[in-house]
Amino acid sequence: MTKQEWPAAIMTETEVVTYVKEAFGFFNKDARLVCKEIGDGNLNYVFRVHDEESKQSLIVKQAGPVSRLSDEFVVSPDRNRIETDILRLQGKLAPGFVPKVYHYDGDKNCVVMEDLSDFTILRTALLNRQQFPQLAEHLSTFLVETLVSTSDLVLDHKAKKELVKSYTNPELCEITEDLVYTEPFFPHPRNDVFQGTKSFVEKEIWGDRQLALETAKLKFQFLTNAQALLHGDLHTGSIFVTSTETKVIDPEFAFYGPAGYDIGNIIANFIFAYTNSVYTSEGEEAFQHYLLDTIETLVDQFKKKFITAFQEKTTERVAHYEGFLEHYLQSVLEDAVAVVGLELCRRIIGIAKVVDLTSISDSQARSEAEIACLTLGKTFILNRSDYQTGHGIVEAIRGVGSY
Ligand code: SR1
Ligand code: MG
Prior knowledge:
The chain has helices spanning 13-24, 79-93, 122-127, 135-148, 157-166, 170-179, 198-205, 209-224, 260-280, 285-313, 324-349, 355-358, 363-382, 390-398, and strands at 33-37, 45-51, 57-62, 101-105, 110-114, 120-121, 228-230, 239-241, 246-248, 255-257. It is α+β, with helices and mostly antiparallel strands. It has 2 domains: 3-114, Phosphorylase Kinase, domain 1, CATH 3.30.200.20; 120-398, Aminoglycoside phosphotransferase (APH), C-terminal lobe (Aminoglycoside 3'-phosphotransferase, Chain: A, domain 2, Alpha-Beta Complex). α9 packs antiparallel against α13 and α11 packs antiparallel against α13 (363-382). Bound molecules: 5-S-methyl-5-thio-alpha-D-ribofuranose (SR1) and magnesium ion (MG). Belongs to the methylthioribose kinase family. It comes from Shouchella lehensis G1.
């Protein structure tokens, strides 16, 4: 399907009100509804609709034929069907960790879901130095429950292949293949490097042939290893939090890929929050300690829960052979560490930035912060098999720059 053939009609706020009243029927016909477009992501339109009287509310998320970031990215609105299906599946595998889905409309390419406006986006909360003591527990549970139960360890292999078909997501995968695995590692025209960071990137990233080779190996791993059903874009902007709850949103990049991808992605984004604190503020040691502790606990709890889930849920006979569990877990962690490195590099060199770094207003501090992340990213890509514990990963972070 070409860009021109896709239905492009993004609803106006007024049309969304009519839609939820008439087509979907969640509110009373005479309810006084207020609608506001609140999307701040790179791809979709997100409308919050609320009834001023009853205080009931919901979210309508609509997919257009191109990304909001740039119409260079032509992306199938089928991502909305994938998002709906995976939210329903994750709601069963990891109850309480995703928003409820009320309705999916394949003609309008929209999904209607629970409004989480009592929650805060984790990236914003961390930039405001808020702490969430249960975050690592919650995220390690979510990761293990969604990754192990969708893998060949647990599922009948024919049933799993049906899921692989259903979650084939070529356009969204192509974005990741390009923006995460390819463009950042050579002088691609779409890259956008901060002036003070440029000479480091030219010499230490683009000039390093061993690094290029390792990214090629990792790209082929991403292209070919249909290991588990991934969220596919699990950064701190895809997580909503309160002091007691964690909800994972926005799984439109979902597909069958290497299980380490989601784990590595979230760790890298914790490192961006940590970097923001180190390079913009004095006297935030307690907050920085919290973030490093969250990374360490996330990795170690993931390992612990993974071992339990593997032992309790694995149905594949040969996976019980002595040594296989250790082999499997080690390779997942190796992939995760590599993805930490890729994500650290691509958010600095590539087109899709993170506010944790772009908001550092002092130019020298920003360059130093970015170079620290790139140095760490390179280490994690090149030496990915050396980090098998939360402590090891945190020690590597502490060993770089002003960290
Ligand atoms: C064109 S989309 C750019 C980035 O935003 C998404 O959240 C993904 O991370 C993607 O790489
Ligand atoms: Mg998103």
